[in-house]
Each structure stands twice: as structure tokens, then as C-alpha cells.
Amino acid sequence: MSDYPQLAMYIDGEWVGAGQRRVRQVVNPATGAVLGELPFADIADLDRALDAAARAFKLWRATPAEERCRVLKGAADRMRQRADQIARIATTEQGKTFAEAKVETMASAAWLEFAGEEAKRTYGRVLVRPAGIRHLVVKEPIGVIAAFSPWNFPIGNPARKFGGALAAGCACILMPPEEAPNSALEVLRALLDAGLPPGVAQIVFGVPDEVSTHLIRSPITRKVSFTGSVPVGKHLMKLAAEGMKRTTMELGGHAPVLVFDDADLEKTLGIVVPQKFRNAGQVCVSPTRFYVQEGIYDAFVKGFTERTQALKVGDGLEQGIQMGPMANPRRITAMQTLVPDAIKAGAKVLAGGEAMDGDGFFWRPTVLDRPPIDSRIMNEEPFGPVAMMTPFATFDEAIEQANRLPYGLAAFAHTNSAKRAALVGDAIEAGMVGVNTNAIAAADSPFLGVKESGHGAEDGPEGVEDCMVTKVIAQG
Asked: Does domain 9-251+453-475 have CATH number 3.40.605.10?
């Protein structure tokens, strides 16, 4: 991509380049070509960002809600206007198809816009007391937020982190992924162009443990927002606990899909196959464990496999491509570990099962039949383009398998029975449940998990409220 933007950090109102700092190469996962060199922050950079955030917070929290709304909605408008440019950057550095990246850009704009409107709705309440006495319950911005976002949604995750924080009146220091940095910078540019004051939102890059430890341990930071793996989330929570800092954790998942024998087979396949291989399966809510009722198992697996084999895999910028590469070579290594382990344990490969030849980090869309329950891939989030098929007999058996793991981010079910749909929604342990749909995320709806998939929420009113603290003011 000849017009790939120059890489820099944004600290205290200044674009900060490499200079004498450490750098990391950013590569195109479809070709392996180097796109640019990303500067890594040193401790002085982080301290400067913290100091700037502390100063900016005092001003931003006092900024009227209408002005915060104007900035966020203005950023949303700019993202829509620049959607093709932003999507092309995301595809080039992360790998997902251009169509998926454009959808992500438009969704990100919607999140910013909703957060802006929600800035005007952070209500408190007045409690009933005798005459002359007032007890007020008010919401206030929590302070400076240290946020960390992963590479799988390089536009959407930064928009979520900034949206809730800025709507609440907080300042935010974001460390986006080093694999896909310019996508996050485009979100920030939209905010700045819409009039966001310097220091309210900043972006730094660096060695993850070094940056996270320094930001979280600083007394300036009052909240930590993290999207990523369960082990890293637990580590950051321990750091945050040292300062009694609030955390929002959107961690890993291993989403079950329950397909009952009364489901519309063709309609269900039309939903779940594209959903499974969206972003090469590198989605925290990606369906992975398919539990299919015995009566339709063979027909469902046959249809799923045929559609999987027909997928066009390649560079996401090319016309007609339905699945791009994995975002980095670590995901190929993970596939080369989990898939052979499942095969050795007794799973049958119905499609894919191997890396593709040539440049880039490509893995063939994979379908595994009946992997044993104790195989690693049935217990560890694969985060890749692999679907596991298992038959079940009864409703209770399906629910038991769906809830078996410690994860509880997303789950899906397909049935034409209204009663069964209601029972599934009640019985499944997950923050989000989709019944006959994969559309579980929306700007006005909280995005959240339970159990080891995390706590707190992003998006919706809850995403803004999670960036606020409650205060009681008693007047006698």
C-alpha cells in the first residue's frame, strides 16, 4: 500500500515519531511485506502522556455534555466520510477483507455517535427526604483511563475504548496493537479533527508488559480497560488491584452453537458459515463448538463442509475474497498445534486442516468432525478459522456442553420453537446469546461477558456508565 500513513504516537498534543526510540516493523499479513516502522514509547514518553492526561481530564470533565457530544458525533461523521480509506488501511495491516473492514468502520462510527448522545443522559437521582433535606445521587467521570486493545478489530476496539471514556468526561491513554497501529490512529485523527482538545485522548505503543505495568501502577490512572486473552486480563487485574482501580475486562470466549433438529437448515447454514470464518475466525465471539442434534447432524455437517470448501481465501483487498489471512504468524503456530492435536485424539478433518502455500499467513478454512471432549481445541479458544462438529441427543445434554467451559462471552442457538428459544436464552451462561441470529453487538447494546470471559461492559449506556463513579451528596 503506497499510501500507508507514517507511523507515530500521539502524546500531549504532539505526533511523536521514532527518533532514537525502539521500533517494530509492521507487516502486511497477506504478503509479508514491511509497511513501516512503529515507534515504541520509553518511560519518559509514558510519564509525559500520564501528566498530559491528568491536566486534560480537569478540563474535559468540566466541558458541557453537549460539547462532548458534538466532538464524538463529529468524529463519527468523519469516519463515515473516510470509510474507504480507513478500511483499506485496516485490511492492509490486519488482513480481514475490505468489506469486513468497511462494516467495522461504519459500526465504529455508530458507537462513537451513540456514546456522544449518551453523554447527555448520565443521570443521577434525588432521594425522597423530609422538607429542607436533599440527598443527591450523582454520576461523575472516574478519571484517567488506561486502555489496551487487540489487533482483531483494530478500528472498532479503539472506538469503543475512546467512545465510552470521552462521553463520560474521562481522559484516555490507549495502547493499540503493534500489528495494526494505523487503524487506531485513524480513529484518533477523526476525534482530533472534530475538535477534541489535546491530551484528552492519546495513543502510545510499546512492549505490552512494560507499557501496561507503568500506566496501571501510576496513581494518575483510575481505571483499566482491556480487551484480550484471559491470562493477560488476569495479570492486568492483579496490577490494578494494587491501587484498587476499576477494571473492564472483555476477555476470551469459546462460543457454543446449538443447532436443534427443528431449525431451518439452509437459513442456519447461511448465517453460521460466514459468521464462523469472518476475520478468519479471529473474533472473540466467533462460533467454535457446533453442537448439532442427531436427527440433522449428517445433513448439517455436509452442508457446512461444502460451503466451507467453496470459500475464496486470499488478499482481503482483492475482489471476491471471502476470507483473508491470519493477522500474524503466531496464529498459524497455534493452528499447527491445536488442529494436529485434535486429529491425533480422533477428530476427522472434513475440510482444510493445513496452512496454505505462498506468502502471507494463510490457513485453510477447517472443519473437524467429532473432536474428543478432552482435546485441546475443545477446551482452549482456537481464535482461528476452524469449526468443531459434535452431535447431541437431548436439550439438557446440549446445555451441559454449552456451559461446560469457564468462558461465558457469547453463545448461539438455532431453533424454530419459540419455547425452546426462551429456554435456551435462560439456560446458557453467557453475556450475549444470539438465537437464530449472529447480530449480538450494537451501539445501543452492552457488549460483555461472564465467568472467565470478563466483567464490565462496552457499548450501550452501560459502556459509558462503566467509566463513571457514583457519589452521594447529602444536604441538611
From this structure: yes
